[in-house]
Amino acid sequence: MADVPGLRLPDQFAQRARDIEEGRANPAAPRDASTVVLLRDAPSGGIEVYMLRRVSSMPFAPGAYVFPGGSVDARDGDRTVGWAGPSPQEWGAAFDAGETLARELVCAAVRETFEESGVLLAGPTADLIAGDISGDDWEADRQALLDRSLSLAALLDKRGLVLRGDLLRPWAHWITPVIEERRYDTRFFVAALPAGQRTRDVSTESDRVTWVRPRDAVEAARRGEMALLPPTMVTLTELTAYDSVAAVLAADRDVRPRLPETRVTGDGVYLVLPPELDGHVPGARP
Q1: Which residues are paired to 269 by β-bridges?
Q2: pTM here?
Q3: To bridge 138 with a disulfide, which of 44, 121, 133, 268 should be the other Cys (CB 3.0-4.6 Å)?
């Protein structure tokens, strides 16, 4: 059916899509997750975004360029975490989530950003941001977060810091399509790279990191030079409309869940984005 809108998916998805459509299989339950789009102003103007390329051995999205992020951890809802900025209730209103989940999402965003980029969105007070955290002692704490011998709440308490939720802004909400065996219910945040901090290539889940202009990443994806998942491609395309980090952080976002649909036809299975996102993903037929 040549008139089916959407992105043609690899044939490996066709049978699972048919099984789900015909009731022979059930969709996996999505896991709550957070991802953070780290931004900085480019020296020559415009903005750059920090991205990681997932190693080829990863079970989900191998080889794809992504933003730092991951699933909510059981301890991300710890109410003892030092907190500054919008309350969990306010975050819940932004993301249509309950107070507990909102707290978990914000903590996961801060924790995962530190784990995967070495950047910590926290400070000694509600008005200050942690400075250089690239020393060996900080790396030991990052490793302790990774092996779960240290929680985010314990790390902040040890360092005399509070989570700086005001450094984050809500951006989007994506849910993995039902045909995927690994599914995520992911809230996207944006944040500026804090002054005095720098990203580090520390994630064991990636084999390359880069700062790239959103437009350059979009064009590279269209040329087949960068693998991007649809939510990543859409986010980068949206960011091409902004010429400074301040403008991104000031954007008024109406965050609603985006769940791409799948349609099975005689010639394969297609991923269908919401109509307002037509043209955001290369290879999708309008």
Answers
A1: 264
A2: 0.90
A3: 133
